[in-house]
Specification:
The protein has a domain of 82 residues. With 184 residues, the protein is an alpha/beta fold.
Length: 184
């Protein structure tokens, strides 16, 4: 796609190359990167799709990370530690051809901030980092979102909120209040 360029100005998006041969992803514009949940990823890989599909379409055809997929192909996807870290079944993320795909790993900051994914010290933080290193090609490790700015409405601390904080989340570190305590 040719971007409209005003004389003397650079294009809106730089050309970004990657290692994927015959990648259908545009190199000169923002791209859509779907987030793949662990249930979908495992069910598609196992061919265990229970919803009706159009005639001639199988569960395997929904594996858009398969470079030989004749239905459709997306070479980039996202997966979150907050959802997929405990996935033990083979799936389209774990069994993909890494030379022909890119997975962006999310460290699960939203799940941590909302209390769904509990952090009980460095062991859990290392588990997330190890999952990202095993699973992803690119990772977001500083994505813990902000909390509510009103102290009385701050979310339950999961070991990630510094004492006296007004609800703005911060990366975990030593000297913080214990998990399960509210910030006041």
């Amino acid at each position: 796609m040719n971007l409209h360029v005003v004389e003397g100005m650079t294009p809106y998006y730089p050309q970004v190359a990657n290692h994927i041969e015959n990648d259908p992803t545009p190199k000169d514009q923002a791209i859509y990167v779907p987030s793949v949940g662990p249930g979908f990823a495992a069910d598609i890989y196992a061919g265990n799709w229970k919803r009706p599909l159009p005639a001639g379409v199988s569960a395997g055809d929904l594996n858009f990370l398969n470079p030989d997929n004749k239905l459709f192909r997306i070479s980039h996807a996202m997966s979150s530690a907050g959802h997929a870290m405990f996935q033990t079944k083979p799936c389209i993320i774990s069994e993909r051809d890494r030379s022909k795909t890119i997975v962006i790993g999310d460290s699960g900051g939203y799940q941590i901030a909302s209390g769904i994914l509990k952090i009980h010290g460095d062991r859990d933080r290392h588990r997330i980092l190890n999952w990202l290193e095993r699973t992803a090609d690119i990772s977001m490790t500083l994505d813990v979102p902000t909390g509510l700015p009103i102290p009385t409405m701050a979310p339950v601390c999961n070991g990630i909120m510094p004492p006296g904080d007004s609800g703005i989340m911060a990366p975990p570190c030593n000297g913080m209040i214990p998990p399960g305590r509210r910030v006041s």
